Amino acid sequence: xxxxxxxxxxxxxxxxxxxxxxxxxxxxxxxxxxxxxxxxxxxxxxxxxxxxxxxxxxxxxxxxxxxxxxxxxxxxxxxxxxxxxxxxxxxxxxxxxxxxxxxxxxxxxxxxxxxxxxxxxxxxxxxxxxxxxxxxxxxxxxxxxxxxxxxxxxxxxxxxxxxxxxxxxxxxxxxxxxxxxxxxxxxxxxxxxxxxxxxxxxxxxxxxxxxxxxxxxxxxxxxxxxxxxxxxxxxxxxxxxxxxxxxxxxxx
Length: 252
Prior knowledge:
With 252 residues, this protein is α/β, with parallel strands linked by helices. It has one domain: 2-enoyl-CoA Hydratase, Chain A, domain 1. The protein has helices at 30-44, 76-94, 111-118, 145-152, 155-164, 170-175, 191-194, 196-199, 203-217, 219-235, 240-251, and strands at 5-9, 15-19, 51-55, 60-62, 100-104, 107-109, 121-125, 129-131, 167-169, 181-183.
């Protein structure tokens, strides 16, 4: 059986985690959450200079949570128990000891944007689109990614994006600071070129730089805010608007 989360340590001392479920737009199910947690623990032991997170396929980095698992018929308590483990994964990413770089090989929606926001650097392929669309579905971000967004971009823009649930092109998100760089389709296959600014840094440099950033983020306090967001999302899970929205998505 193909692993839904692939991990390897490159010869140049960085790690790569790949969401490997392209036939389902890399949507995250229970097994992927468990595998993500396991590979993050392994990666911590590998003395990486930095960690890359990307997705398989050409079109989608991640479509968010798998609706066959996160369906609309869950009680708030059931929803919380299914959402919370991925919040813990996102917190593992933000508190990872060296920088994390999200290579957005395609579009990201909902929880896919939450994963990307948990990373320190976001680099996107041209002509891709990204949306915190959760409020269109009658909920709010369910893995703590909304709390993270307030730390990564201007708070007024974060509030607007979470509330209006728009899907934006790369140029707009570069201007807003959510994306750091875009890469042409022709250059996307040259990972060494994309990662060049990071390959020249030493392990000790990366540790010190990431530690400084973690102090700015106050990651322990942020974990509490993320948990509160997960709980708040779960309270909306059995609302008529959310049930109707999920039913519509599953029927497409």
